[in-house]
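---------- Forwarded message ----------

FYI, see the DUF362 domain-containing protein record below. Original note from H. follows.
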Amino acid sequence: MSKNDYYMIQGEDYGQMAIQVLQAAGVAADIADKSKRIGIKPNILGAKKASEGAVTHPELVDGVLTYLKKEGFHNLVVLEGAWIGDLTSRAVRVCGIYDICKKHQVPFVDLQKDAFRTVDAAGMPISVCEEVFRLDYLINIPVLKGHCQTTVTCALKNSKGLIPNSEKRRFHTLGLHKPIAHLNTVIRQDFILLDNICGDLDFEEGGNPVVMNRVLGFWDPVLCDSFAAESMGYRPKDIAYIRLAEQLGIGSTEVEHANQVVLGEGIPEKETMRHTKRVSKLAAYADAKDACSACYGSLIYALDRLDDAGLLRGHRAGSVCIGQGYRGKSGTIGIGRCTGCFEKNVDGCPPKAVDIVQFLREQWD
Ligand code: SF4
């Protein structure tokens, strides 16, 4: 195992996919001591269902608890503090994670009710909930999704659920980026199981889910967030909190030098997502034939970046081809390896949104 490794699996059996990622990464061997207190930190932002694109899928928490118990770990706790606008006690029930905790007889700790202490986070005093200091190992389960202030939210920002509400308010007045980076100098993130199933296009509260049907595993939260940024069409160093976290020594932004381990079949199921109005508007630029979810999702994120830059205007609907149905076929502009016979295409299986953005900019500028 190297801090540079990351694991990726695609499909729809999310609980099983979580177990496969943990097994491939060797998380049990990394924890080693069976008596260790292990915290599992999902993203339970508010009273939402995971299908809306805002909160962690309960199937992933189920997979993690099943794996850990089977490996002989029993000192487990699921912990979270919802955002200021909601009660954790309500949110954890609505999203289904409370039932998963009950099923495994694992306690859920509501951090909105926890005491806290103020610590020095690389020169910045930050208040952190007491329960965090009782943990010997933390498995973070963030959702890869957009955010109205920080553009991307993932592993580093998911740590904000481990601080009291008063500190969350202060973080917002400080502009989020700097305190998020500093917080992660005192929060451990031993393993990150990334929920990239259907995170939101650009808003942390959900409403416009983009189906990718992927689960990933990372050892390095900065690498995880850098991957997330590229998956949404951004360069990691353009996101201030990711850049700052690297400068503080928390991890690396160099996704291109990381080692990707693909698990399972490699080729995912075909995209069948039902689009919201907003996503449908972007999807209208694509002519999809049997596209995989991850490929199609990357294109949606890329089109959203191009829309932000005002570059979609003047282009006709269906002008970008994507999907397995184009294998061996000719055409003009294609996305992904399946369109390799087109006049122009961006390679990758699936390609990253950041590469699609650059490719389409070159064609359309
Ligand atoms: S390039 Fe083809 S096979 Fe690969 S993810 Fe895209 S649609 Fe699927």
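H. also flagged this: The mean pLDDT is 94.
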